[in-house]
């Protein structure tokens, strides 16, 4: 189950649902990753990116309570940090600039996140 | 004296023979009598036609105003009446001593003192009147005098009789003469036994053109046409008249100038005292013009008859009582009866009972006013059908101008009325439909601007739903620009386009001024009059509802996904802390049940409702089977939780309750649980905070290690998940007495302010 390719990577988790964030965190830690966060709000996410970048990857929940996570995604792109979106909504109005970003619809198998992160550049 | 009287009688006889004038003779008689009696006064009284009065017909010694004017009443007190009735002379020797009779006033005034009345009878006994001798002195009339007067009166009677007869004859002759002279249309002439003309009257001269001189002596045959003469018609007529007493003569005759004259006449034989035929009286009327007029009339009547028969309206002639005299085929058709049936009945009998009165009045009015009268009324046909017809009655008059019959022109109204009624009904049905239906209906007239572009429109007609859907004030007669105070070129073009193309369109349009969306069906109603009809429904609510539904469905998908995500996360979390599969199964199932309970609470809510904390805590403790006697709940009810927080909070409370049931206050006999809460809005400006205090007491702590991992997970949710997800402030401590946990979290401030999010 462990994927050696992810060992030692620093991964940011942005997810406002605690149980999901906690589960992701646990799985990533199991794989030898260092988890940044998880954080459940845009402000925390932006603060963490500023203080920790560069790092190896991020899992970004698009809907963070009343805020959208796009500013955080922009910042990640600005740092050249690979990331993927998770979302509970159908194809929501995701801006074109994120057209190439992988989206995982909830509910998803956490294993897919791991796979996706493994393939991320 | 006698001689003198006799002479007088003789003189009178001479006079009477010489004169034909009754008044002259009577006056002369009075003069001679008064002379013979030596009274100077005498008069003749004539019984008037009514037999009640005597007129002073002639008189001598009497004033002009008496003679010919004064009348004496023939009552029982008059000596005159008495004399006439007794048919003998009556004498009053002295009227001052007279007690039998009343003497007329004018005679007393004239100084009459004595009088003799002698009745005058005509041959045959009829009374003519009286000869009355008036004396100015009392006088005892001698028997001789009386005899003289009687003789005189009887001569007078004969003379009067002759003169009266002569007078009557003269009057008759005058009338006859006058008639013949006037009746110039009548040719009257007499022929002798050989049918030669002997008498030729003016009418004959005028009709045939021959003068009397020319005609007399000619044979009657000259008046016949050559054809009739050749056929012996002239002779046959005379023979027939002689043998039967009468022969008609109705044929063309010849005038002197050779032209024809149509005579309607006859021939009668004239006979002498012994009954032998002495000649023939021929009388004929010139009816040439009348005949021509008759021919014309007949032709005209034939034409009229043809028109009458074939007219496309009902025609009938009625007598003044309403009986059918004639009826044409159309009337028979209208009234549903044969001609024979109609001619045997009256208008009244074929009229609907309710209309009889009006019908009879119309009939009477037409006769009385000489004005055509029209009436719409019902008839009943022979088969019982009821029909409506309109009749116009015109009175027809005879030659004297008296109403003789009525012409009735009758038009079948049933078809027209039924068509009208059908139209009215249909119109009413559609009107009802349009008024009752929920679709708005309007008739509009598209209007062009000065450049010929469709720019505005005017409302011509709208239904009730139109007003409801548009919330407009009464729009009929107004343009949309006037109504909305701004043009609506889009709709104007829409309507204009339909008018131009004649093609209907269906379209969904939003009117920004009204903030409403309409589904329109526009079709051309009356192109020549620029009328377009629009049927539309306000689908604003439907659209909004559809939008809402779309959002709700999206939200449902979202929630379901989140729920599944949570379930997956829960299973992951549970699995990580489970010792074996059974351990996992029991705890995972319990957590899923808690999750299902909170979903149940949330799903019952509408948009604006919120789960309240008391509801949530009671629901969870009940589900966990907590003994109510050991539980104290204390806090305000109705504290509204944010929907986004309910699930997480519920899961945290579930972990607390689970632990309490298994190891704590709800699982041990002496244990107690007190949950108290309060709302505190003071600490934070705009968001109220709920403070929850969970305190377990009276329990014995279990052996270390047995429950550490379980407690660890409940504690993790309290200490990490609530702050992470709900921005809650929490404390969790394990005292000697049991668990003490506090949770403070922001709650919903007011209904509707809060919104769900993922």
From TrEMBL, chain A:
Q: Which domain of life is it from?
A: Bacteria
Q: Which UniProt keywords apply?
A: Phosphoprotein
List the InterPro entries: CheY-like_superfamily (IPR011006), Sig_transdc_resp-reg_receiver (IPR001789)
Start and end residues of each Response regulatory domain: 10-121
Q: Which residues carry this modification: 4-aspartylphosphate?
A: 61
**What protein am I looking at?**
Response regulator
